[in-house]
């Protein structure tokens, strides 16, 4: 049986003087959602295009189930991909577009109706794609990716253009596809989009690997041993906690961050000093904070030319 792992190894691609992907290596395993994150221009789409055989690497390899995409026996059943939701002809009706794709790949018309239902596009099945919102085009692209009931899904910025309801929907869809044992790789330039979706993230910048870690690990590292304290007696709290050996910084008008003291000790010190407080809890970092921590270290990320753009929040 094929192990449907995505394996990128020493992958590099240059366009003229631009190094788009630079000796990139990572593995994406079945059964979880893996986020592929980096700011605009980091090299995500180029990597995905090489994985799908749409661009040739200068060196290295990009394999799916141990083979290059072009060598897969039944590619649509093996891999479903969404690269560009705009790629549908505007005059084509949604169902007709999918039927054409299905026939071309030897799939039954029944499957077209199944995927239309899965992505919630049944009511628009007979409408022309030209009249679709970006969110509807994303859904149509996802329907196309799911047609062959593939083991591996590769989606480039699938959340782009979706409204909050659509974002919730795609999170659920990705999680259920992964729970069925599929390999799910989803790119985004916004780490926050992957919160509550990805189990694992691969972060790249300027074509290079910055992190390849479980989300839980990344969040634990970014959360550190900090405690967040809410009190209207900020000055007194700072004095008491500093005297106890804590490092205290101001978070907001009524909020402080304390590190170097466990939460129980902070509570005991405040009570001992008769300093009132309204809330006290270990700090839980967001995925966006973890991302900013990571990219802060990668100074070259923002220091030069095209990557001067801050990751958008
Ligand atoms: N066909 C091409 N010809 C020339 N340069 C290219 C080509 N494709 C990508 N590049 C360049 O390679 C770099 C990486 O681009 P890529 O589209 O892979 O990044 P990305 O991470 O997908 O960004 P985005 O989030 O904006 O889609 C960029 O500097 C881009 O301008």
TrEMBL record:
| One MF term in the entry's GO annotations | ATP binding
Q: Enumerate the spans annotated as ABC transporter domain.
A: 6-231
Name of the protein described by the UniProt record: ABC transporter ATP-binding protein
Q: Which PROSITE patterns match?
A: ABC_TRANSPORTER_1 (PS00211), ABC_TRANSPORTER_2 (PS50893)
Question: What's the short name of a Pfam family annotated to this entry?
Answer: ABC_tran
Keywords per UniProt: ATP-binding, Nucleotide-binding, Transport
- InterPro entries reported for this sequence: AAA+_ATPase (IPR003593), ABC_transporter-like_ATP-bd (IPR003439), ABC_transporter-like_CS (IPR017871), P-loop_NTPase (IPR027417)
Instruction: Give the protein family.
Output: Belongs to the ABC transporter superfamily.
Record the organism.
Answer: Actinacidiphila acidipaludis
Q: Which residues form a coiled coil?
A: none
